[in-house]
Amino acid sequence: MSKGLGSAVYLSQLLISESVKEGGIAVDATAGNGKDTLFLARLVGPGGRVYTFDIQEEALQKTRALLEEEGLAKRAIFLKAGHEDMERMVPGPVDAVIFNLGYLPGGTHALVTRAGTTVKALRSALNLLRIGGRIGLVVYTGHPGGREEYDKVVALASTLDGNRYRVVKISFINRAANAPVVIIIEKAGAPSESHAAEQNS
Ligand SMILES: C[S@@+](CC[C@H](N)C(=O)[O-])C[C@H]1O[C@@H](n2cnc3c(N)ncnc32)[C@H](O)[C@@H]1O
User: Fold this and answer.
1) Quick one: which of 8, 31, 72, 182 could link to 54 by a disulfide (CB 3.0–4.6 Å)?
2) Is the pTM of this model over 0.90?
């Protein structure tokens, strides 16, 4: 059952789903418990591949177990590596990259995503993305380092060339100030007529 607009992960997946083609390539930059990897594995179908990254063996084991339960493990490539290295480990172009930042739910808070490596990974994801592909980020600010990471991601995303990238930010405006924020980036082709028309209006 859908969690509807109350779930940042659901909103990110909803907007990513349109960009992933059957037979395509997608990246889960933060495997964690494997839910985003499973979501992407369903979308790419039997001929596609999901490259899934985590620095924790525990996270990759959970992700593999979840995909095995669903009979989809062959669709994923499990990489115990930092997502900041994705550009040399993933053959582009890719349909989508999902980041669910922060720490592994139920795991150690020491192995958390960090501003510097997240920004490096986001730049790599932008380079790997095909035209029309999308990056989805779910960003948390409530833990130590979370606000700095959020600020750096927003600083990069908000300065991307508006003719080449469409960028939206979704926030829960009637929840606590530290509720998660969803950022979606789409790589555009040539400037579209509708975009030009909107800019002129
Ligand atoms: C919020 S969890 C991801 C949740 C996951 N998407 C899911 O569906 O369950 C964040 C994960 O990022 C991982 N992580 C932290 N730094 C990383 C890095 N540099 N590269 C890849 N993964 C990293 C953590 O180990 C943790 O498992």
Assistant:
1) 31
2) yes
User: Domain residues for 127?
Assistant: 4-200
Ligand 1 neighbourhood includes 21 CB (under 6 angstroms): no
| CA–CA separation, 121 and 82 (whole Å) | 9
Mean pLDDT score across all residues of the chain: 93
Pairwise CA distance, residues 89 & 78, whole Å? 11
Question: Cis (ω within 30 of 0) for the bond into 93?
Answer: yes
The enclosing domain of 68 has a CATH number of: 3.40.50.150
* Tens digit of each residue's pLDDT (9 = 90 or more) over 57-113: 999 999 999 999 999 999 999 999 999 999 999 999 999 999 999 998 877 788 899
Give the span between the Cα atoms of 159 and 178, in whole angstroms.
23
**Closest ligand 1 atom to 83 CA:** 20
What's the total number of domains in the chain? 1
105 CA → ligand 1 middle, Å: 9
Please, which residues have CB within 8 angstroms of residue 179's CB and are 6 or more apart in sequence?
Answer: 8, 171, 172
